[in-house]
Amino acid sequence: MNLNLMLLPAVIFLILALGTCGAVDTIYVDQNIKDGETIVSANEKFELGFFSPGSSKSRYLGIWFKNTSPHTVVWVANRKYPLNDTSGKVILGRHGILSIVNSGGTIIWSSSNITNTNVIPIAQLLDTGNLVIRDEMSVVWQSFDYPGDTFISGMKLRKNLITGREMYLRSWRSVDDPFPGMYTIRLFMGKGKYPQVYICKSSVIQTRLGPLDGIEFAGRPNSRHGSNRIYKTEMVVTQKEIYFGYSANSTVLSSRSVVTPGGKLEIWVLSMQNYVWMQDSTIPTDYCDNYGLCGPYGSCSTNTYPNCQCLKGFAQKEKPHDLNPYNWTNGCRRSNVLDCGPGEGFLKLSSMKLPDTQNVVFDGTMSLQECEIACKDNCSCTAYANPNITRGSVGCLRWFGELIDVRVYSMNGQDLYVRLAASELLEGNLISKSSFSRKYGILIAILLISFAAGVGLAVAYACRKKKIKRHMKGKRFHKMNGTVQIDDLDELPYFSLHEIAEATDNFSISNKIGEGGFGPVYKTVKLIFQGVLGDKREVAVKRLSETSHQGLDEFKNEVICIAKLQQRNLVKLVGYCIHDNELILIYEYMPNKSLDTFLFDETRRSILDWPKRFHIINGMARGILYLHQDSRLQIIHRDLKAANILLDNDMNPKIADFGLARKFVGSDNAVSTKRVMGTYGYISPEYALHGQFSTKSDVFSFGVLVLEIVSGNKNRGFFHEDHSDSLLGHAWRLYKENRSIELMCPSLNDSCIISEVLRSIHVGLLCVQHHAQDRPTMFSVVLMLVSEGVLPQPKQPAFFAGPSEQVQSVSSVNEYMRTQLYAR
Known about the structure:
Blueprint (H helix, E strand, L loop, with lengths): L2 H5 L18 E3 L4 E2 L11 E6 L8 E6 L7 E4 L12 E4 L5 E4 L5 E4 L11 E4 L5 E4 L4 E4 L7 E3 L3 E5 L5 E2 L1 E6 L2 E13 L5 E7 L2 E6 L21 E7 L3 E8 L4 E7 L5 E7 L5 E7 L14 E3 L7 E3 L3 E3 L15 E3 L10 E9 L6 E8 H9 L4 E5 L8 E7 L5 E3 L5 E7 L1 H9 L7 H35 L4 E4 L2 E4 L10 H7 L8 E4 L4 E4 L6 H4 L5 E5 L8 H12 L9 E7 L2 E7 L7 H4 L10 H21 L4 E2 L8 E3 L5 E3 L6 E2 L7 E2 L2 E4 L6 H6 L1 E2 L1 H17 L15 H10 L17 H14 L10 H9 L33 E4 L1
Parallel strand pairs: 24-32, 46-48
Antiparallel strand pairs: 1-9, 2-6, 3-4, 4-5, 6-7, 7-8, 9-10, 10-11, 12-21, 13-14, 13-20, 15-16, 16-17, 17-18, 19-20, 21-22, 22-23, 24-25, 26-27, 28-32, 28-33, 29-31, 30-31, 30-33, 34-35, 35-39, 36-37, 37-38, 38-40, 39-40, 41-44, 42-43, 45-47
Helix pairs in contact: 9-11, 9-14, 11-13
């Protein structure tokens, strides 16, 4: 007896024939099903059989919806190799290969899968429309893995990130010919690991859908069903693959998406009561759905003429009279160049199609506030948004580089926050939308700005005097003829304003040697302090600026802190002056200025060879340890950065600028503040986001400094062509791949000691770990730098969002706290 016939009774399936308009539920090995045979179908929704599309005489094996009007094919097997007559057969071989054979016995199409199972395979058409070949254990092949031009519930657009294999839709060549056409719908994911869907003609993007807002593709203005979707979408990203799919929410409606021979994505809905197809929506919908129509930083709207306009803060690259209203390929450029200054901010644009996400960083755990801080903390970040409307304000997209394919939607758009220069934000706040002409608008803006500036200066002056008077009350000051001195600081010399003005040639610009968050710094030109200081050394005079966010509190704080601190790695304060509104500090002069003037200068960084850099790292560590543990006033600095590390003649580091320093007594517990001040790129996450600072906040800043010293790059504004992480994230990537040495500045190749470089990077990463409790103390840091023992393994740094790890959030937040950030 034939072995196949012996197995048939053990398999409880209905054997059906395959016909022109019929279907087959199960095909067995050696069962030859011919085109044209009479059949009975057991599948309620789909049929499998041979058909001829439209006016064509060619025959194809396909799957279609059953009893619908019009006849709707969802999958074609032999779309490249049609049969020329009705003599074709379908054969399922012993190895699980499904084949179509023509009248001459030639195989014109096969499923090309091979299984080594000893169990006889079968082929089944499921009620999902999926044709599967299975054995007793599993499915070995399925038609859903080889989609044609149609996407139905249960299918997936998929891309294997390891092998690169894609599953995408491809149009028919014409309505009568299922041969693969020019248009495809593909799932794409850039470096930022955020997927999106394109309609392409050959390899050229024609339309970009989306992005997904958590419910559907954003900006579907002509969708019939709105929020009452008959299906729910799903976008999944793992280390191995990405895929998009949807499943039906309704038992009385079904749907399909098809890419047409003309390059449109049509979405149709089928009523299971009358089996009639109704078109739900079409993409592209209008002129503005053409990809990148308005070029970089251009935005398209169907309600304006021309349809393309520049985003606020941007202007046309071409002159208006040279620009074809239908050709904006060159797009726009910034009206004012960004300088990464503290006044930069973000303008909210509503109801937008978010830009192309090929160059983004995505973090699904960040709040919108955290997203803004992370974007502002990196000078290369041009915009941010929360793409997911289903999770409140959680989810962060950050764009790096040009913003492409932006449009205004009439409905279902999203909020986009675009980075602008301070002057653009000011102008945007002062100029109202009115019916005045542009000429009068500009005139009014100038008048308003001038008036506001005058009022602002007057108010600032009055507030400053009032603030100083208020702080005088109950403080240890005494005043005489406009001069104020601090009591209990007899060891610190006091100088008159007249003496200081004479020494600096009345604060001449030619004697200015720098400027920080406190104000300008001058070098003395006359040795008027010789008699007081007992030598002829030069000094640096730091004068509080009228625009500084620091005031009398910070000034007094710095005087008292530094006057009582004595350590070789702390800058020495040699005097002070308070006279009316003038607040002045006098320091020992550092001829090599600050660390950042060497570290981030292409021509001067070579002066800092590795022995000097390692000496600076160790000196900073000892100085911070003294502040935290060994001084009579235990201090948290709160503003450690390269600009606040001064260098003497011998390149010895000295920590400066104690205006934000705070005293603590014998405890490392975090203290909360409602006024967060510091420098983006150096502030720890718990301080930046929640106003909580401790000695571990200084440890974080020290870790950033170490990585900057090793690499010669700024954390804020760091850019790498392979990703959009900060310097901390880049160092973390290299560390995990055992390539930390690649972080080192190329100028150190001839002077480096590799073990010291690697140890410094390792210690730096330990210091910038996200959670404060994971960071070492400065005592441990000093020991780790000078020892040769095994170091603990660091955890991921703050503000890092790699492909598989997300930035964690601090869970304990005072909901009534109001944190205000000031960049210095």
